Amino acid sequence: MNVQDNNKYSKTVDGSTLVRLDFKNINYIVNKPHEQLKVKIPNNGKTLSVSLFRVDIQAQNFQIDTDKQKNIAVEKGFFLPRNFEK
Question: Can you give the pTM of this predicted structure?
């Protein structure tokens, strides 16, 4: 990311900070899942400490039904948005 990226987003969002993700670390998180992670994020000269916990948000008999299909399979995992820039 660069100054141009920051300027582009600052026209839309007030008080934002852009961060660059290290995909080696993202791959580690995805491929070696832990029950709990603590992530430190640098932010304007300070460090934000975020605790992440693995949870199962689905009830035992959870299922997805639509008007076109019943009991759609649910894929568990870590997903990034389709337009996510690496």
Answer: 0.46
CA distance 33 to 37: 9
Alpha-helix runs per DSSP H in the chain: 3-10, 23-31
Residue 22: inside a domain: yes
Instruction: Please report whether residue 80 resides in a domain.
Output: no
Domain that holds residue 24: 16-53
Is residue 52 a contact partner of residue 64, using CB atoms and an 8 Å limit? no
Instruction: Give me the tens of pLDDT residue by residue for the chain, a chain 86 residues long.
Output: 555 566 676 677 777 677 777 778 777 777 777 888 888 888 778 898 989 888 777 788 888 899 999 998 887 766 666 665 55
Q: Is residue 21 included in any domain, yes or no?
A: yes
CA distance 8 to 1: 11
